[in-house]
Specification:
This protein has 388 residues and is α+β, with helices and mostly antiparallel strands. It folds into two domains: 226 residues, FAD/NAD(P)-binding domain (3-Layer(bba) Sandwich), CATH 3.50.50; 115 residues, D-Amino Acid Oxidase, Chain A, domain 2 (2-Layer Sandwich). The protein contains eleven helices and 20 strands. It is globular and about 65 Å long. The model has no long low-confidence stretch (mean pLDDT 96). The structure holds flavin-adenine dinucleotide. The site of flavin-adenine dinucleotide has 36 residues, from α1 and α8.
Amino acid sequence: ESTHVVVIGAGPAGLTLANLLRSAGVGCVVLERQSRSYVERRQRAGVLDHASTRVFEEWGLADAVLAGTPEDRAIEIRVDGEPHVLDLRALSGGRTGRAVPQQVIVARLMAAFQDGGGDLRFDAGEVTPHGIDGAGPTVTYRDPAGTLHEIACDYIAGCDGHHGVTRASVPAQAMTTYSYDHGIGWFTVLADAPPPRLPLFAISSHGFAAQFPRGPAACRLYLECAPDDVPDDWNDERIWKQARLRLGDDALPAGPITEKGVVEMRSFVADPMRYGRLFLVGDAAHIITPMGGKGMNLAIADADVLARALRAALHDGDEEPLAAYSATCLRKVWNQQEFSRWLTEMMHESGDAALAGSFRRQLARARLDRLFTSEPAARAVADLLAGG
Ligand code: FAD
């Protein structure tokens, strides 16, 4: 069995890449370790930035992916209970994104790929790349019946997330990795409770909190916590009490909590995002904290760059875009890492009770105040949120 590209992993990176390759007329097989229902249920991100919507528009996938999804037009930053709205649509010159849960995008991308005859294999065990530094790589995997398969290919796309097999198959000396621990914890829940009118960031001396819509009848809450907290430290009563306190809203409606977790507030970047004929895409190459909502969007941006480069290599014999793949992606990755870190520092240090009366806290407050008093400063944030 052979194909042009084996895509390992069917998250946002792998499914976007698979659809773009199909549009480009490049053959591919997607191998996913989990079952279809597991992949369809995995709820994480909730915003497609403007740059991601452009990717789907440019590749003729707007109807399949974006249809009916609401615009992400503004955010609220609530400081000690006082609301400030940033009108992202106006500030970014109309470059808004879409508010859409990750699992909706994943389901739509799977449907678009398979309806078009795409080859997507779930429950693929022991997926292993071979010969990535040579001219003829292969990928082996075991199907649910226990049969071992081998697929020969021109290129392998490692879209298997942060803990996948592809980055681990690159010799350590061939890659520089950068890792940063932000020194805080974020406890997060998904709840079947009314979403806020706008994505909401709240700053108070009780700790940072955020509440984001996840579809019309659910929301995700993020509550700053100790880095070593475990989900069991947070019962429902504590969650809603802290949310009300931090959001400054005594009447915040509660609802059944459907998922709890502690998010690792850690960033990671691998450079280069390529080794031989293996290309790393999305979380396989880099992770970013949820602050700023960029993880899924970087995965889609990488997939776009790689699909164009593979089309050039396979259709036109032009390997230059592939040679530039890593540098092209990493420029955007570092820009967004800086933005995410900048937001994290500002949002946390502005409220941090332990920093009360300190120089650092005054600086964080000044940064925040600048967003509400300087239009160029607010426009810079809107530009980065748009995926600039
Ligand atoms: P993944 O989504 O991790 O997909 C990788 C796929 O590969 C999975 O389906 C996995 O099962 C499969 N796989 C793994 N190993 C193998 C193997 N050995 N063989 C075959 N398949 C394999 N991003 C945002 O943009 N905005 C947000 O607000 C946001 N919030 C988040 C909140 C939480 C709680 C979390 C955890 C993440 C959040 N993110 C957010 C990040 C975002 O979810 C990820 O960046 C995004 O899922 C990355 O997509 P990916 O396809 O690269 O990786």
